[in-house]
Structures
1.
Amino acid sequence: MKKIVLVAGARPNFMKVAPVLKVLDRSHEISCLLVHTGQHYDAKMSEVFFQDLEIREPDAYLGVGSGSHAQQTARVMEEFEKWCLQHKPDRVVVAGDVNSTMAAAIVAVKLNIPSAHIESGLRSFDREMPEEINRIVTDQLCEILFITSEDARENLIKENVQGEIHFVGNPMIDSLVTISEKLDHKILSELNINSQNYLLVTLHRPRNVDNQENLQKLVDILLDISKNLPVVFPVHPRTEKNLEKFDLSEKLSRKQGILLTGPIGYRDFICLEKNAKAVLTDSGGIQEETTYFGIPCLTARPNTERPVTITMGTNELVNLDKDMILDNIDLILKEKYKKGKIPPRWDGKAGERIAQILIDW
Ligand code: UD1
Ligand code: UDP
């Protein structure tokens, strides 16, 4: 029986592998293993996703933890290579664009194990983003490339990839559809906020939060918005460190109308997303989830690897432009912001399509 290993390591991986793992685990034709690299390790960045998405225990936990890009990538490679040599998988499947994704794909190709990439072909054309490098390398190495939208196909063809491209839809949306049926709305009363009356904020891109001037700008923008609309800001660990380092934490936490929390579990976070008046974010995945829900999304970045969320969805790039952000918030409050559509094949069935292709491979 063929042995397929799914690799996940960081927060945005878990909702992408969950729907694929569920189908593969039920198959009698292959055996499926799950390896957690340990890139994210805090309960709120990892364990809570296993609970909320009902993902079974991983078969291995590599415990690589944090470090510089080279250190983290190297640790995943070292540990995953050992694991592969011991367990001899026939196929390796990676997802998304984090360091664990690229590291596992490199290990697989060097051991001559064919690999597949879930969420292939996304490009921001911005090599300052570490994820862009991870995407380019991973897509060059994998033999099966699962894409979430047709623009990804064009990007891959231009890069002369060797792999076979399959337009399967978006597995992140499968997880969103599943969790949407289980929302209990307790988080709204716990945070003492009302549906449709707050801006949900997430920020963690190094360009925004590692740079003092940019983080200061974003903090000022949030202080301004909070005069008209309450702000709910679940803070990523990278951002928390930098808010402290640049002496910005107190400025935010003392302000009425701004609610700071730590990272929020998947089910509660999706509930916050679905009930928000709007979202301000620099996340990749959140641009897609808000498009699915039809919630206005302002993306605090100069570019996006997910253009379909702008052309079809509810996303707009606002970078760190305060006027543009405030003007858009004004449009949203006046109900004049654009309405979007759900992109093709974001229908909750991507996991099944991916799993079937992997089983037949
Ligand atoms: C990583 C991904 C990024 C993704 C993000 C999702 C890379 C290059 N980056 O960025 O693409 O959007 O995850 O959240 O792979 N930390 C903790 N607890 C944890 C994990 C991290 O405190 O469980 C802190 C550590 O101080 C660490 C820092 O957060 O140094 C950054 O973690 P890291 O995984 O290196 O990158 P992210 O910014 O999380
Ligand atoms: N998310 C979450 N809690 C949070 C922030 C994000 O559950 O406090 C979820 C979000 O709904 C999406 C995923 O995490 O499913 C996106 O991950 P993140 O923004 O960390 O990474 P990116 O998508 O930018 O790589």
Note: The first helix runs from residue 11 to 26.
2.
Amino acid sequence: MRVRFAPSPTGQLHVGNARTALFNWLLARGRGGTFILRIEDTDVERSTRESEAAILEDLRWLGLDWDEGPDTGGPRSPYRQSERLHLYQRYASELLASDRAYYCFCTAAQLEAGRQEALASGRPALYACTCRRLSREQAQARIGAGEHPAVRFRVPAERDVVFTDAVRGDVRFHTDVISDPIIVRADGHPAYNFAVVVDDALMDVTHVIRGEDHISNTPRQILLYEALGFTPPTFAHLALVMGPDHSPLSKRHGATSVAEFRSKGYLPEALVNYLALIGWSPRGHGGDDEELMPAPELARRFALEDVGHSAGVFDEEKLAWVNRHYLKIADLMRLAELSVRYFNEAGVPMSPDRRGLEFLASALTMANVSVDRLNQVPARLALLFAYDAEAALRDPDVASEMRAEAARDVVRALAEELTTAPRLDRETFRAVANQVKARTAQKGKALFHPIRIALTGRPDGPELDLAVPAIDRGAELPPDAGIPKIIGNRERAAEFVRAIARNR
Ligand code: GLU
């Protein structure tokens, strides 16, 4: 089995195309096949090397590795269409020689006029190319006189083209509705339908899995396979990925590119798992949990027969649900490394070394089970890096709570206990809380809520058993660990006591 993903490098990798790549990859990896990456860059105006590099990077980030491709090479190289122009020329010459193709000298204006005429007379807008009837001698004479013709494929008349699509079943087109396609443009560049056939044939592609938007190209391609003496592959056309309003997912629905989801802080394994579930469900699966599985398991279970015909809707809520699952089980050191950019973007500049990262990893236990995405981590951990007692007291709820003498007693007792306490871990924090409880006779919420406000500067947030030790671990970090300065619990409590005294 040889499959391929054939992106045009004209922009960012769209999640719909990423899903096409993924389905090819899953099939190859599940069946011991070969996954080929081919760059379709014959549209010289729109193709860029930057876009190609970005697409390769996104595929690598997703973990969709390829066996043959523009960077890795392989037995059917080159893998960039712009480097295969001689091959298209060779096969176009073959078709011209056997009269299955002909030179077309029509200008864009003539073609448009023909189209308008056909429309006006109620015929389908198929251009009956006048050049179809030119003799070889006439064509050669015009080329000799300096004209640059395109090459068109002569579509056989009165034929049914039938193929069995692995997803959609039998598909039938009559050649009456297919006009003679251009295979080589006047500038010498091949047209998509021709290049794709030459490449898929020469690269021995056995299964062409692509978006449904290409289904109407398939009969042309099958006719070209026949004319060139090649055997067509199995085709599988995937329903497009839709937005919530059931129109194809586009910018107006929000994020559409892999790069955007990556920068919002989705994990690649979550995006892969989620994309696999758009239009496919593992056979015999019962319940949500069975939808969550790592890529090798997806590959083991993936089958084209289980891909549905109907369009799948991209649901970011569900993607977030999948992401939460992977955040919970992810290695914390990895999450720490990935989080650094989000702190920097959120205005908490840092470049942590190993000690800084270990600290962040330990603090992430307060965040990884409660955020949807990594870009929410800085807000969740803001209590570590920003502490301002005065600002806390400007919150009307905090201020009114702190007007009660009982709450002030708790905070004053806490500050006093902390002057002699060591840096807090979970046990010493419990011991200090017990001392404060004994001194003030407050318990439960009346005890812990003022403590929370005094030490974190906010009325809610992560468990104190996690937050308080994290604050003191942060306060102990050496300045060159690359983490912004963190104020310790002792200093926080003292500052809070001064602030309530000032706000009397
Ligand atoms: N370059 C085409 C695209 O990006 C590939 C289509 C195909 O897979 O045949 O749509």
Note: The first strand starts at residue 2 and ends at 5.
